[in-house]
């Protein structure tokens, strides 16, 4: 079967890059509180992974989420094996799959491909026909849908072409937040969300409010922060997961599947211990080196304290208990499987290679943070200062050999649930 065409396309609206370049941002001093969270521009307008395919793009820096895709594969295929088959003949309606928080690049294509292939094999073997599939690629409007559509159309980087040559589904883009309704009632047979649900819908206002006990002074994130800060994030996370589940409960057909993989922490850990072990705490790109890079900008007089403290990373690692509680509160789903796993930041061979070449390690880590945080940092600081920040981060990471010798793990929670 030839690759079917798009059934519809949506082109991304303003990316953070566009937003920043709309303003006169050439001066190094440029920064504007207009972009702080809770201000006139919402996080949803700027949060995205870096688009395109250059060295700082998400497409080129998604090894950890790629490991998450690999980890998901047996769990997802196993779940597909036990799923209800919906169609009785090839003339029936299509099977509809959504990837929520799809970003761009190989991971989203591999994920959708995995689901389509798993279901297709079952239909062929058990019912003797091949159904039609529709795949919905959904992300925030700031996502680089143009790049995604180009890969789907076959204008692809080499590492995607193998997946693409086997594309057996109609494709559509759906811009919007997964914390809102994205599809009509009972539309989806499978909804998948990989490495996305730990991104919150917003930064809790109190965290950037100087007069609040939850003011997160001197930190870009919440690992190790004071209780009030962490509690504010935990409340936001709970609200967000409730919204996500309530919307999916409407959209997924009875017997359909919800598969989620999100950043998570071991259940035994308090929320202020987001990363679960001391080495990961030290080495994670959102912690020490990031805070030091912000502090350097401050010490050099390039930004003021208010600007530094106005930036917070909108991510929260849930525990399995927190996810379980939200699922029970929402109702309508039967959890088939839920577990916490750890993903090594990179292989032992890579670690050895990098200890011989710390500069290339620094480059690689800086590219990773550019890919994931670039758009929101640029929205907060403007492009020139964002560049300065990432350069300092890179220098720090390249020169701290003690840190390089440590091993960082990313914790994830995997959940497979069936809509009752
Ligand atoms: C780390 S990427 C993961 C992408 C892809 N699923 C993968 O496995 O490589 C997280 C994605 O979630 C998206 N995202 C974050 N918050 C979102 C929201 N509220 N609604 C939709 N997508 C969101 C981001 O824009 C980003 O593309």
TrEMBL record:
Name of a matching Pfam family: Methyltransf_7
Domain of life: Eukaryota
UniProt-listed GO biological process terms: methylation
PANTHER family in the record: S-ADENOSYL-L-METHIONINE:CARBOXYL METHYLTRANSFERASE FAMILY PROTEIN
Region (Disordered): 265-284
Protein name per UniProt: Gibberellic acid methyltransferase 2
Keywords noted in UniProt: Magnesium, Metal-binding, Methyltransferase, Transferase
The organism of origin for this protein: Eucalyptus globulus (Tasmanian blue gum)
GO MF entries: metal ion binding; methyltransferase activity
Listed SUPFAM superfamilies: S-adenosyl-L-methionine-dependent methyltransferases
């Amino acid at each position: 079967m030839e690759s079917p065409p798009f059934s519809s396309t949506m082109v991304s609206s303003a990316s953070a890059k566009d937003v920043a370049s709309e303003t006169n941002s050439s001066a190094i001093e440029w920064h504007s509180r207009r972009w702080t969270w809770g201000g006139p521009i919402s996080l949803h307008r700027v949060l995205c992974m870096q688009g395109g395919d250059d060295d700082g793009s998400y497409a080129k820096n998604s090894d950890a989420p790629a490991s998450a895709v690999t980890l998901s594969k047996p769990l997802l295929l196993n779940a597909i094996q036990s799923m209800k088959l919906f169609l009785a003949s090839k003339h029936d309606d299509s099977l509809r799959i959504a990837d929520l928080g799809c970003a761009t690049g190989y991971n989203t294509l591999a994920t959708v491909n995995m689901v389509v292939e798993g279901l297709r094999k079952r239909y062929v073997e058990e019912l003797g026909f091949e159904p039609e599939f529709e795949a919905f690629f959904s992300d925030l409007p700031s996502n680089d849908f143009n790049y995604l559509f180009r890969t789907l159309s076959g204008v692809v980087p080499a590492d995607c072409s193998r997946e693409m040559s086997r594309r057996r589904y109609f494709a559509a883009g759906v811009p919007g937040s997964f914390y809102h309704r994205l599809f009509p009632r009972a539309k989806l047979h499978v909804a998948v969300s990989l490495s996305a649900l730990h991104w919150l819908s917003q930064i809790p206002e109190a965290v950037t409010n100087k007069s609040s006990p939850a003011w997160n002074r001197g930190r870009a994130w919440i690992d190790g922060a004071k209780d009030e800060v962490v509690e504010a994030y935990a409340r936001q996370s709970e609200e967000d997961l409730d919204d996500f589940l309530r919307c999916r409960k409407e959209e997924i057909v009875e017997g359909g599947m919800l598969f989620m993989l999100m950043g998570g922490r071991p259940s035994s850990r308090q929320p202020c211990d987001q990363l679960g072990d001391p080495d990961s705490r030290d080495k994670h790109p959102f912690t020490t080196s990031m805070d030091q890079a912000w502090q350097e900008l401050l010490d050099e007089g390039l930004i003021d304290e208010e600007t530094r403290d106005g930036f917070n990373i909108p991510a929260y690692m849930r525990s399995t208990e927190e996810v379980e509680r939200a699922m029970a509160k929402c109702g309508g789903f039967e959890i088939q499987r839920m577990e916490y796993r750890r993903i090594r930041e990179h292989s032992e061979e890579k670690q050895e290679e990098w200890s011989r070449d710390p500069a290339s390690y620094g480059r690689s880590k800086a590219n990773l943070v550019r890919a994931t945080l670039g758009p929101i940092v640029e929205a907060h600081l403007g492009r020139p200062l964002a560049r300065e920040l990432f350069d300092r981060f890179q220098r720090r990471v390249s020169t701290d050999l003690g840190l390089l010798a440590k091993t960082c793990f990313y914790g994830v929670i995997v959940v497979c649930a069936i809509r009752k």
